[in-house]
Design goal:
Blueprint (H helix, E strand, L loop, with lengths): L1 H18 L27 H4 L7 E8 L2 E5 L2 H9 L1 H4 L8 H5 L7 E8 L2 E5 L2 H8 L2 H11 L6
Antiparallel strand pairs: 1-2, 3-4
């Protein structure tokens, strides 16, 4: 009898989760890990454009944007981001660009990046990035169509 009671209690406890609409299960607009609220894994999004490479940001140069904390290598980079976040924030909130093109989200890795037409894109890993680079215009077009429905 104890097992049956335990199973019944578990079913009742999980029922609200099962009954949530898909929109309630959507991802947050900016990818962060389960352990912190850092966007771009703590890398400076402006540095991709100015230094041409991933550069770790510092706590003292940070700002909040769309519920996530962005870090920067300098006050100047932070201020440039604050002045125009859309110019520097990674596309699709830092989620993997290829995954978004396929209709789902996956983490974007700050070390697998590319700037295309003045926009920063991240991908899950090197293998996925190579796949994405095989048809960037097609994958960007598909991702742009899919993106709004994948996040809150």
């Amino acid at each position: 009898m104890k097992l049956r009671s335990l199973l019944a209690a578990a079913a009742i406890a999980l029922a609200p989760v099962v009954l949530l609409p898909a929109a309630a299960l959507a991802e947050p607009p900016i990818y962060t890990s389960a352990f912190d609220d850092l966007a771009v894994q703590g890398y400076d999004p402006v540095a991709y454009f100015t230094a041409g490479k991933p550069v770790k940001g510092a706590k003292e140069f940070s700002t909040k944007y769309m519920g996530a904390t962005f870090r920067f290598a300098s006050a100047a980079n932070r201020d440039a981001f604050i002045a125009n976040p859309a110019a520097y924030a990674p596309q699709y909130g830092g989620y993997c660009a290829w995954a978004v093109s396929q209709g789902y989200t996956a983490k974007g890795d700050a070390r697998n990046w590319k700037i295309v037409d003045g926009k920063l894109y991240l991908n899950y890993n090197t293998s996925i990035q190579k796949k994405w680079e095989g048809d960037i215009p097609g994958f960007v077009s598909a991702a742009n169509t899919n993106w709004p429905g994948l996040v809150d």
